[in-house]
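Dig into my protein:

:::
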Amino acid sequence: MERQLEYSTLLERAYKMIPSRSLVRERFEVEEPEVMVTGKRTFILNFKKVCDDMNREPEVLLRYLLKELGASGNREEDVAVIYGVFSPKMIKELINLFLKNYVYCPVCGSPDTILRREERKLMQLRCMACGALTPVKPF
């Protein structure tokens, strides 16, 4: 009986020595898009920063957004201008969809990828972590 008591005391002491879980932040974080609608135009104010976070050229992400929204637009400095009224929620969902399909590796889930266009418009996602080469739907 004494041995059982000693074990539980030691176990309690060991649990107390374990540090409490701290907030674990992911290494890869993309900044929330700052969307502003003025008149009949939608602005993504931190567009360049969002693109830099995902390691993609701004033209690539803008082309994807414009195709998915069925709108026209352009880029002025660090801001994306989309002609039409679109909700911030819709823009955020499209950026998350872009991340899922064109940034994260489908094999290992790593965000360390390169999006490249091969001849004849074939787009491939090359993972720098596991080396996988995955064809992706062109846009």
The mean pLDDT is 85.
